Amino acid sequence: MNRELTHGRQVARRARRAAVTCLAITALLLSIATATTATAMTATAAPPRPAATASQALPGSVQPAFGPDVLVFDPSMPQSQIQAAVDAVAAQQIPNQFGPQRYALLFKPGTYGSAESPLNFQVGYYTEVAGLGPNPGDVVINGAIDVFNQCQATNCVALNNFWRSMSNLTINVLNPATGVYSACHTGEFWAVSQAAPMRRVHVNGLTTLMDYCTGPASASGGFIADSRFDGAQVINGSQQQFLVRNTTLDAWSNGVWNQVFAGVTNAPAQCFPAVSQSCGPYTTLAATPASKEKPYLYLDQTGNYRVFVPSAARNSVGESWSATSQTPGRSLPLSAFYVASPADSARTLNRQLERGRSLLLTPGTYRLDSTLRVERAGTIVLGLGFATVTPTRGNIAMTVEDSPGVDIAGIVFDAGPVNSPSLLQVGERSEDRRRHAADHADAVPTALQDVFFRIGGAHLGKAAVSLLVNSNNVILDDVWAWRADHGTGVGWNQNTAATGLIVNGDNVTATGLFVEHFQKTEVQWNGENGNVVFFQNEMPYDVPSQAAWMSAPTVQGYAALEVGSRVKHFTGYGLGSYSFFNQGVDIFSDNAFVVPVTPGVQLHDLLTIFLDAVNGKGGIRNVINGVGGSSTVANPDVPVTVVTYP
Fold first, then answer.
1. Is residue 1, in this structure, part of any structural domain at all?
2. How far apart are CA 158 and CA 213, in angstroms?
3. How high is the pLDDT of residue 443?
4. Domain assignment of residue 459, yes or no
């Protein structure tokens, strides 16, 4: 998305479809505000029973060297002290889109806030909020943890609300009658866009994914997994697209362009494309074909820090945890990890990996003059507070060998000023892959969870490919690859980046794949038996001329996602590509999606959209393989859909 809030076209971009939805949802929300407060009060009086050992705050333990940007809260602390700390972080980070600061706000098991004095705070950029219990019920927040619109002189939107997260806690929704909450903000607000996941969260009370209190409230999310919502429907509102995976809903309010549900209890029924205002657009899968939840830091019964690594699952439904059961998986002592700081060199980190240790990257930016090499099976590289890795000499930032059971999670890969061939490479090059296929067992896949790539924006960055997957049996769970469309070092010949994702491995599953603004084919999928559940794309805005953007002498533009011509089996659900060519000349892509025509390649619920008739030019001529019709100025902000192909 073009998220530069000062652009005059920002409001027009998708206000037409969203405006009707916003008005209806705002009226609904205002009408149920009183009922929501009553529901939240009831939830606070009788919260769900937590896990047996988690109802008491654990005794203090020796604090690991997490550094100054990891704030660990204990329920014995005065609430005023906690409130002051989280508010100070929010005040700094809410406007800090491309700043260097990163934070993790961690809550030890126990209860925070009360009906009389709820704990409410906002989450800004590069801020991770997480409970430190084994289960979400072990950390209870009576209050709300919110993301609101960002307001400029002419509008208030959530289109830039990236790089923040919330996980592993319970929220009993309560809002004070003071400040921003006194006028409108009633509920749990999570008005986010890409790279802002919610995982392992239990919300009792109203949750809204749009900030309806200020307008036009446009939002471009989003990702929720392994969570539960009780007591009220989740308000989608103006969110143009969203993926909800392995979650229990009370209900869901509405769709806009591409709402996808996989393995969700009480999900809306399949309805694509939308049928007037009665349903959809919803893509609903009864089960998630392959999943592996993100590893997380927690405290055990003795107050010692450990990392829990969930097991992989196939055809799963609902969240992995309950009040009486643990998530399946393995628990590792913190001694199995090297607790890294941004001052550590690539040589230091590689030495620790060679010794068989996993890595816990504390918040900050790791500037690496050589490649981090993950070679051992079962290695975990877990970032706290959106730990960021930047290659400085045109090197690949990280490579992962063809070893099973590796998890790379919670990391931002930020391209450096010297062009890198790729930022993260998983597995050996394709010509060597067959020799190692047997080593990468289906039961213990490698997984990437909440892994984000950025080319430009904070500084000049260049990378030919963001993510290269050569291994078989890999799970990509919430991946956003973004060639920046605003910020520092942004331009067609500045932040150069050909492709966001190349998949050469077989049996690779992507759940929540966001790839935007790359200069050639944005996703190239060459592996067999690939599966994509939810794909969101925007083509590059800044193409200077049609001559500069031809994939073949007679083929205009590049596909958002192309499946290799030799592939026999591939499946996709809920795939969307949008165009906004803003250089004042007509630029066209002949197809958003290109796939071989064969019975084993099946795509479901595809769409294209032309954004902004005032400032946009050109468009997308066909949805897929010459089928589906065009998205141009003649039909702006209207989805052009293909239900099934072929």
1. no
2. 12
3. 73
4. yes
Range of weakest confidence among 50-64, 176-190, 298-312, 560-574: 50-64
User: Nearest CA to 608 among 537, 534, 521?
Assistant: 537
Q: Is residue 269 located within the same domain as residue 366?
A: no
Integer distance in angstroms from the first to the last C-alpha of the chain? 29
Cis before 636? omega within 30: no
Which of these three, 286, 318, 343, is where a domain ends?
286
Q: What is the CATH number of the domain that holds 520?
A: 2.160.20.10
The predicted-structure confidence for 278-318, as pLDDT tens digits, reads as follows: 899 999 999 999 999 999 999 999 999 999 999 999 999 99
With beta carbons less than 8 A apart as the criterion, state whether 239 and 256 touch: yes
What residue numbers bound the domain in which 578 lies? 541-646
Domain boundary among 538, 568, 596: 538
Q: Are residues 515 and 548 in the same domain?
A: no
Residue type, 11: V
Share of the chain above pLDDT 90, in %: 85
How are beta strands 530-538 and 509-516 bridged, if at all? Answer: parallel
Name the residue with tokens 């900030």.
211
Are 519 and 568 within one domain? no
Of residues 623 and 34, more confidently modeled: 623
Tell me, yes or no, whether 550 and 468 share the same domain. Answer: no
**Which are the contacts of 11, defined by CB distance < 8 A and separation ≥ 6?**
154, 155, 157, 216, 218
Domain at 92, CATH number = 2.160.20
Of 257, 252, 226, 224, residue with least CA distance to 239 = 257
Beta bridge mates, 609: 578
Are residues 126 and 257 part of one domain? Answer: yes
**CA–CA distance, 392 with 571 (Å, rounded to integer):** 37
> Is 7 a residue whose pLDDT tops 50?
no
Of residues 464 and 215, the one with the higher pLDDT is 464
Q: How distant is the alpha carbon of residue 464 from its chain centre?
A: 22
On whether residue 291 sits in a domain, the answer given is: no
| pLDDT score recorded for residue 53 | 29
Average pLDDT, the chain: 91
Cα–Cα distance measured from residue 57 to residue 299, given in angstroms and rounded to the nearest whole number: 10
Structure tokens, 516 = 């935007």
pLDDT value of position 63: 82
169: which residues sit within 8 A by CB, 6+ positions away? 107, 129, 130, 131, 133, 136, 139, 140, 141, 200, 201, 202
The CB density around residue 218, as the number of other CB atoms within 10 Å, is: 29
Find all residues with CB under 8 Å of 275, minimum gap 6, and list them: none
CA dist list (Å): 411 to 99, 130, 423, 425: 16, 15, 12, 14
Q: Could you give the 3-state DSSP secondary structure of residue 492?
A: coil
Give the Å distances, CA to CA, from 574 to 61, 293, 517, 577, 642: 46, 21, 19, 10, 10
Which single residue is written with the structure tokens 């806030």?
113
Is residue 149 classed as helix, strand or coil in its secondary structure?
coil
What digits encode the pLDDT tens for the residues 223-280? 999 999 999 999 999 999 999 999 999 999 999 999 999 999 999 999 999 998 889 9
Q: How many domains does the chain have?
A: 3
Residues labelled catalytic: 538
Residue 51, pLDDT above cutoff 70: no
Same domain as 456, residue 351: yes
